[in-house]
Every structure is written in C-alpha cells, then in structure tokens.
Amino acid sequence: MLTILSAGKSGDTTNNLNMKDFTWTTNEEVVSNERKNFSKAAVKQPVPKNNWQIYLLIGIIANSAIWAAAALYASKAKPSYTSELSITIPGAGSRTDINLPNIGQASSQNFSSYAGGSFDPRENYKAIATGEEVIKAAAQSVNIPLADFGAPRIKIVDNTTLMRFEMKGKTPKEAQGKTRALYEALEKRLQQLRDLEMRQQNQRLEESIEDSRRKLKIAQKRMSDFQLISGLSTNEQLSNLAINIETLRRQRAELVAQQQQAQAREVQLSANLNLSPQQAGNAFTLQTDPLFQKYLRDYSEANAKLIALNAKLLANHPNVITQKAERDEAESALVSRAGILLGRPVNLASIQQLNMSNSDPSGAGRAVLSQQLVTANVDQQGLEAQVKGIDQQLGQLETRLKRLSQQQSKLEDLRRDVQIAEAVFSSTIARLDLSRSSLSASYPDTQVLSPPSLPEGKPGGKKNLVFAGAAVGSLFISSGIFSFWRLNCKKKLKKIEA
Q1: Cα pseudo-dihedral 211, 214, 218, 219, rounded to 10
Q2: CB atoms within 10 A of CB 173
Q3: Coil, strand or helix at 455
Q4: What's the confidence (pLDDT) of residue 355?
C-alpha cells in the first residue's frame, strides 16, 4: 500500500499534476517511523505519577456518607400513610323557561362551569382547598394542630372533570380522617360561598323588583288618572258607543219614515174635512164636553121652534119674540161655553163649522175623520219630537266619540306602559323564584367518585425508595469521580507532551 507524503511546492495552485513532484512511501515504512518516534519520546519524557488512590478514597468517603444518611433516615423517619379521595365536578348547564299568559316570558339559565375556555372551576377549588381557612377548619374537626395537619396534595386530571386529593398521616385511620375532614371543610366553605353568591344575586333581584314595582305603580296611576279625566276606560267603550250611535241612526230613520206617513195622512184628512188639525182638535174638544152638548141641544131646539113660529107668525108676535129671546140666551150660553173650552173667543159661525153632531150621519162621519186627523197630528208631533231627541243624542254621542277617539291613542300608550311594567315585574319575580332553586354557576356541586381510602400494609415502600435513591446517588458520584480522574490524567499528559 502506498501513502502520499507530499506533493508539489507550497503555494502552487496549478491544476496540472506532475508525477515527479510526489514522493511515494509504503505503509510499512510509515509504521516503522512512528514506532521510532514514540520510542524516542518515551525515552526523553517522564511518565506522570498515577494518584488514583486519592480519587478512590474520595469515592469511598462520598458513598459511605450517602449510604449512612440513607440508613439513618430509614431508621429514624416516622412511618407515613397516604389516603386518596377522588371527586368530579359536573359541567352540564341547564335552562328553565316560563311563559306568563298575557304578560311575557321569564327564563333562568345555569351556564356550564366549563363554558369558558380559560376558566376551570377545579383550579378555584384547588386554591380554596389549599387555603388557610379550609385547612384550619379541617384540622380543628379532627383535633390536630394546624402545624401537624400538613398540606394536601391535589392533582387535576387533564381532559376530565376529576380532582384527586391526597393527605398523609401517621396511621391509616389518621390519613383517612384528615382526607375526609379536608373534603368536608371544602364542601362547607363552598356552600358558604354559594350562599353568599345567592344572597347577593337575590338582593340585586329584590332591588330590581322594588324598582319594577315602583314603575308599575306609577304607570297604573297615570293610566287611572287619565281614565278618570277622559272618561275612557276600555276600547270596548268606544265600540259600544259606536254601536249605540248606529242604533240611534237606524231608529231615527224609522221614526222619520213614520213621521212622513203621519204627516201625509194628516194632510189628506185635513183636505177632506176642510179643517186644520187645530180645528179638528177644537171640534173634538167641544164634542166630548157634556155641558157644551147640552147647550148645543138647547140652542138647536130653540132655533127650530123659532123657525117654526116665523113660518106661522109675524116677527113682532109675542111668541116669536119670546122664542127668539130663548134662542139668543141658548146661543149666548153655547158661545160662552165654547170660548171657555177652546180658550179663545168664538162665534156661532165657527161653532157651527166645528159642529159634528152624532144625530147627523154626515156629522158622525166627520167626527170619525176629525178624530183620525187629531190622532195623525198627535202622532206626527210625537214622532217629530222623538226625531229631535234622537238628533240631540246623536250630536252628543258623536261629539263624545270624537273626543274619546282622540284620547284613545294616549290611553293605548299608557296601557302599553302598564303592560310592559307588569311584564318586567312578573318576569323579575319569576326569575327570583327560579334563582332560589337553581345551582350556583361559580361554585358547582361536587360528586365523590371514590371516598377517602384507608391505606393498607406497612409503609416499607418508603424505605425501599430511600435505598434506591442512595444507590442511584452512589452510582452518579462514583461515575463523576472516575470521570474527573480521567480528565485530570489527560491534562497532565498534555502538559508533558507540550
């Protein structure tokens, strides 16, 4: 085998190779030269002193100290027992909705305790459980001094809702009792925090209820005052008023038709009798008076006798004169009685025009027609009065309807304010009732998955761990001392070679 020892001159950068510029040697020659150089160096340089006894002594002392400490701790350390407890914190939320008829809707919602990505109630529970208040309460419940009770070891299991509690004790019973006392003290503290949160929440709701009640009373008073002043209480009142107006209008139309019929019958009867309704009424009055009828008969008899005497005797005959005086007296009595009945002065001609004697067939017919004329006139006047009364009522009702219609919008606004206030008040009360039965979102309930365990067996595992640790420590120290010795030897050898 050949070995290239040198090639070209120093500083030559040409790429052309010249075989004359290389020196060729064999592998055996190289090895022979190295042996000669090493033998020469060995002769010239002294061999360093080997001080491994010192490092060995240090290693023995260090290992002896580790094992002595482990043996002392194993012999003097008091036995310790560990009790474990596992709980879970449910994370399900709930929602309750209540429909209030004619008012609105009330709802109460308990959000999941894990709803927020950055919030984990277990961290809060861990801080509370390791707090001085909880540990002090747990120590007092088991009659152990606070300094000797110790601190709990709490682990939060990732991707679950679990928490694990560990407490140490001198005996299995003591460890189990301390773990149970810690959990009970934690639950007691959590319940206090829940009660405090609920009291604060209920206080806020009660203040809101008082404010809602005050607003509701104000809205109700404003509406009642407006109803009292305006006279408008409900929308049905306007509907009833409009119905009454339509009913009166229909009645008026019917009365007007009846009035027109009565007026037409009156005009026809008046034309047939050649009497006005007033005259027909006067004739009816005279016809129904017995005294007037007696005077009328006396006059008729006296007049008939006078006519008969005039036909036989002269005008200056004593019988004619006497009969004429009797007729004049009867006429005077008749005219006087007619004036009293009619309330105005009359003469014999007007009495004769109004005379409807039953003894005369034509007079009897005129009496019937006259009575019908009077009846038609009375009916027409009565219907006219009714129409006027209805017109007056319609005017009043229409004026009232117009005024109430203008005020209806304001009443609706006031009623809407009352309804809103009632809805807010009722929903607030419903939310207060729901909140009293709902769970706390900040401090959810816990469930025990595994009760505090009772450690079994002797605590020998701790001694084994101590000796295992001593063995590992001894191995590390021995390896370190050996490594340090070798490093020291190499440094000295380098110094000698230099």
Answers
A1: 60
A2: 13
A3: coil
A4: 60
